[in-house]
Amino acid sequence: MTTLNIALAGYLAFGQLTGETYDAITKHSGLQVIHADGAVTLRLREEGRGKREENGAETTVIRLKDERYPFEVTRYIRTWNDCAAVETWVEIRHGEAGAVKLLRADSFANRVDVKADAVRVMSLTGSAKYEANVAESPVGKGQIVELSSKSGGRNAWESNAAMMVEFEEDVDEERGKVLGVALEWPGTSCRRIRRSWDGKRTEVFAGIDMTTGPYTLDPGVTFTTPKAVLVWSENGRGEISRQYHRWARRHLMPHGDALHPVLLNSWEGAYFSFTEKTLTDMMDGVKEMGGEMFVLDDGWFGRGKYARDEVNKATAGLGDWCVNTNKLPHGLGWLADEAAKRGLKFGLWVEPEMANTNSWLYQEHPDWVLQEAGRPLIVGRGRSQVVLDFCNPAVRDSVFNQIDAVYAAIPSLAYVKWDCNANIWNPGAPSLASDR
Asked: What is the DSSP letter of 424?
């Protein structure tokens, strides 16, 4: 374990969970609950801790329990031997007489014991074709700065689920104390930095954004927060970036240390208007340029009046994951074989969590999409795009079986481009009870 890991693990293990700071979990809003009897306080005490080693990582497990209620919290802190990153998450369970409401359940909620005359936060914001704009803000004494993304599916847009908290006035790439905080989570997120009135204490929080409503946790069920990944640097922002890259390549991304193939994607070259010859001609171009992969983007699926084509474009077909045989009479496997003849790998575009209202899936199962009871359905991209209700097992099974059949028809499939082109505008799952 590196010096950076030891230092940050110290904050994680002892900054919040020992001595006087047990109450900080509720007082500082890292974890807020309403018990089955209506009480709203937590007083957690440590029941024990242990360590386990696996695959070059060491995980510390800290078990906590409320003094009065059968309410348990387990905190996990994982460090690696080959990079200076710390991964932490929380499991929550209880044995109360009824359901407990979770109002907040942060993955990371800690006081950072670094003396600082100035605290700043740096984050990334933007939208499609304008991503990753740097935004910086000071955190004044007695202030809270909150960064949140409420789109529900595209957290790289309005507010990326990561930030750097700087504990000096003039931090740059090579100088200054910096804490990096990133969530392994694509949904709604919230990160906060709070300074005490005298500026001597800084608290940092990161987790799911639950402001749209509490999570109902039944007795005996375990709620697991997303993982937060943290990096500490005393050598500026550059060290944060390098350690995150090292961690992601080695412990997050499949084949993260491998060189990835140079590819051509069909989208800007053909959009929805293509034939098999259009695509094989593009493959020839990839080969001539020395490329290694061809990816078929949007427009290959749907049938009948809801086929995805140059007429319907983005208004139809999502949810119907079958080949549009009018455009591709020989199927996807044939296209993959054509790519292989040219020495190319083959990839495919999908967006399985979405549907169009102009689709056979929606027309047959209008209750399979997220929607609020009693309100008109709000549609997105293409004036017809909605998000499927994956809380419903029938939806999960249907989409899985469709996609599985598509992939199975392409034995040499090497790459999947999984897109996400809609926010969650209808935050209601018809398959769940109203209190869920």
From this structure: -
